[in-house]
Amino acid sequence: MYYLIPAVLLFLIAFLLVRTFLFARPPIPPEDVELPAVDVERLAVGLGEAIRCETVSTGEGAPPAAGELFKLHTQLQLRFPLAHARLKRESVNDFSLLYTWEGRQPDLPPVLFTSHQDVVPVDPTQLDAWQQPPFSGVLTDGAVWGRGALDTKSTLIALLEAVESLLAAGYQPQRTVLLAFGHDEEIGGANGAKRIAETLQQRGLQPAAVLDEGGAVVQGVLPGFAGPVALVGTAEKGYLSLKLTAAGQEGHSSAPPKNSAIGRLAQALAQLEANPMPARLTALAQTYREAGSLASFGMQVVFANLWLFGGLVRRKLDANAQTAAAVRTTTALTIVEGGVKDNILPSQARAVVNFRLFPGDTIAGVCERVRRLIGDENVQFEVLSQASWEASPVSATDTLLYFQLGSAIRQVFPQAAVGPYLVQGATDARHYTGLSGQVFRFSPYLVTGEDLKTIHGVNEHISLDNLERMAQCYAQVMRAWGGEAEQEVEAESVDREANEEGNLN
User: Fold this and answer.
1) Contact 459, 129 (CB under 8 A)
2) What gap in Å lies between CA 227 and CA 505, rounded to an integer?
């Protein structure tokens, strides 16, 4: 009897360790390859020019000024002459750009690389906090400064530089490579990426893979990792805004009813805020499964054994707003309206509640949950359809295309672990999920938590080292997706035909 407890403990420890050793996938050593030479000066100058084009999408939903967009288009044409001489460039819906680099086998499904031309506004009250003027595009201290340096004119410039360098080296892809640059991503992409996707669909083009912004190589952001982690977005959250309307009895405030419109609305909102959607660790567990071999042993033990440590993990994540949002559909009370005068009881009170949908949750499912939680027929709600969409499908990571993407990342960032990631915000990528089952979201630059704060914030900038690595990584992905996959497919086809002939003989 005295030996039973130690035996059980030893068995439990052994069980945990076995699960840990089987959990994380060992990293594949990066190939020792010669990275393509890129013109860093052209990159820096080109990005600076792009930043000085004030292609701002406003908070009121207005797209950038036509003159600023056309100025950007002209500068791109001058800065990347080979790309504009050998690729077909089209304007979609006047301002968005679609480039076609025809492959040697144009019947193969193409691959699509995307970015966007627009940027968010600069807060005028924060101008003095900028080390460099936000639209100066100045190169100083080894970095290019200004709005769009990270989000995401740098990816646009780096993509064109990758094409330029590959063309200069005499490379032509086997499958067609497409570049799509929408002009209104910051306000939803309805007139940019969505229209480009519709154009591709009309032409019967279904990309084998799509690469957009979303994740990055992060340092000091993911718990348990001392080194960098390349987070590749394989899905992104959906978006749902509900308008709640509470009815009450209008009248004089001297004789208030037991249940006023504002009171009913407040109770409904309190219910929603007090009952958040349940946390689900599936996406985070997949990140640690694929990248976790480079994480601390303690984190490997935890994520390999969520059956035991899941409750602890959820409590730790819920202690921080950012980490809590990473594992659930979030509920945010964003607008409250009601009343016109301090002595008048309003007949109605209104509010808007915003949800960011975790993959697997649906608009219909969230609406039903809201209905149950409120439980008051005097509080009605409606979906704001112009500001609502489902969570994206989740792209698989057990495919050749994902493997090639990860290999290209590790060629440029050899110390980085690579793992899938759920993108919290919205990107243009969601407009292409109907065309391709392999949609990835990744910007190949190395950033810290402090760098991430500058996106949509003050002092946005990107280092020259990052610019060079971005162009190199894009070039490696283009080579892999544009050529190597087809060669393997051809080899498999030849083997299959040979086997069939042997069977017939």
Assistant:
1) yes
2) 57
Q: Is 185 a catalytic residue?
A: yes
Q: Which of 118, 290, 460, 486 is catalytic?
A: 118
Contacts of 435 (CB under 8 A, 6+ apart): 197, 200, 201, 205, 206, 207, 210
Tallying the residues shown for the chain, one arrives at: 505
How far is residue 392's CA from residue 422's CA, in Å, rounded to a whole number? 10
* Structural contact between residues 464 and 235, judged by C-beta atoms closer than 8 angstroms: no
Phi and psi at 427, nearest 5°, equal: -130, 170
- Cα–Cα distance, 257 to 252 (Å, whole number): 10
* CATH number attached to the domain at 238-278+328-387: 3.30.70.360
HSE-CB at 104 with a 13 A cutoff on CA atoms is: 9
Pick the CATH number of 40-236+392-492 from 3.40.630.10, 3.30.565.10, 3.40.190.10, 2.40.50.100: 3.40.630.10
What is residue 461's three-state secondary structure?
strand
Question: Which residue in the list 49, 54, 151, 185 is annotated as catalytic?
Answer: 185
118 catalytically annotated: yes
Q: Which residues are CB-neighbours of 331 under 8 A, at least 6 positions away?
A: 272, 273, 276, 277, 353, 354, 355
**pTM, 2 dp:** 0.91
127: exposed, middle or buried (Cβ count in 10 Å: 0-12, 13-18, 19+):
exposed
For the record, the structure tokens of 120 come out as: 């968010």
Is 186 in contact with 84 (CB distance < 8 Å)?
A: no
Taking the chain (505 residues) in consecutive chunks of 10 residues, what is each chunk's mean pLDDT? 79 90 82 90 97 92 95 97 98 98 96 98 96 97 97 98 96 97 96 98 98 96 93 98 95 90 97 97 93 91 95 94 94 96 95 97 98 97 92 96 96 95 96 98 96 96 98 98 56 36 33
Domain with CATH 3.40.630.10 in the chain: 40-236+392-492
